[in-house]
Amino acid sequence: MNEKDIFILAIESSCDETAASVVKNGREVLSNVISSQIDLHTLYGGVVPEIASRKHIENIDWVIKKALSDANMKKEDITAIAVTYGPGLVGALLVGLSEAKALAYALKKPLIGVHHIEGHIAANYIEDINFKPPFVAMVASGGHSHLVYVSDYGKFEIMGKTRDDAAGEAFDKVARAIGMGYPGGPKIDKAAKLGNENAIEFPEPCLKENSFDFSFSGLKSAVLNYLNKNQMQNIEINENDVAASFQKSVVDVLVTKTINAAKEKGIKKVALAGGVASNSALRKRLKEECEKEGFTLNIPSPILCTDNAAMIGSAAYYEYINGVTHDLSLNAIPGLKLGEK
Ligand code: KG4
Ligand code: ZN
To answer: What is the pLDDT of residues 101-154, one digit of tens each?
Structure first.
């Protein structure tokens, strides 16, 4: 262990994953423990906030202990404690935040509050240790769809965002309507491989507008209308075709807007982040389009795309070396804006 090394113990509990990780110098993941509640929420067709909070309380202690032991570290050797403090479900956030504050207080270590989306973007710094700003990032998750220009570490310009449903939310709602269950993204991804993406023409959300904003609720309604109309007429629905055609519309708009955003900024470096970044069609199409344009593309491995604490540890490192720490009055902010410190 070098004196100058910075070890961050990071905690993430904004939605339905209780996670802790030890990250060395922002780039090296020494442990990455994720306790998922997905099986539980699947029973209800989506995340139940109250159940999420209770499960976080049950799991947080052993998740943190395991993160330390997997990293072969004692809590005294940690440089700072990082935690997601927004956006997310307030009850869920508070569990991780209270734990982080208690640790920071007891160990007399600095506390670093991290924005969840900043964490998703930082997953790219772990995936490729040489990847650095400036770049344009498409962040698509269950709660957010943001097109972000990252001019430097911790410096963000939101170029566009969803006006209604997030991309992952649209995947989840459409999957539920087809009867595939929660979470919908991976299920649609799998079903789409067996379907014809040109079978049904669904609208491409906001594709023709010049803005970098998105809107997925019209597309979601178009899929629901298609399903209802066919059901009422007793016409058999090919679920794989619906999945593939819906996915194509989402992927088209995400890819087109990302490429246009990079061109607007004159940047040849693009990154993908968030749970939807694990979608195989999105990864493939964006790679092809970036190659055509001569852009470099970075995409985190699927385990770093969905919620985890390693990404929070990486983001926290860059905040910390830029002098950002928080005191123990830090509160959970469910609607925290990107760039707020
Ligand atoms: O980033 P994340 O784990 O949590 C949030 O911050 O919201 O994202 C979860 C979202 C869910 O909506 C899930 O359906 C979606 O990511 N997702 C996918 C895939 N894997 C997860 N969407 C499309 N294709 C996938 N393979
Ligand atoms: Zn997330």
So the answer is: 999 999 999 999 999 999 999 999 999 999 999 999 999 999 889 999 999 999
Q: What residues flank ligand 1, with Cβ below 6 Å?
A: 15, 141-143, 168, 171-172, 183-186, 189, 274-276, 278-279, 306-307
Task: Find the ligand nearest to 309 CA.
Answer: 2
Ligand 2 centroid, distance to 198 Cα (angstroms): 30
108: left (phi over 0), alpha (psi -120 to 50) or beta: left
Question: Is the CB of residue 86 less than 8 Å from the CB of residue 333?
Answer: yes
pTM: 0.95
> How does DSSP assign 233-285, residue by residue?
TTPPP-HHHHHHHHHHHHHHHHHHHHHHHHHHHT--EEEEESGGGG-HHHHHH
What would the pLDDT profile of 62-77 be if each residue is shown by its tens digit?
999 999 999 999 999 9
List the domains of the chain with CATH numbers. Answer: 7-123+305-321 (3.30.420.40), 132-300 (3.30.420.40)
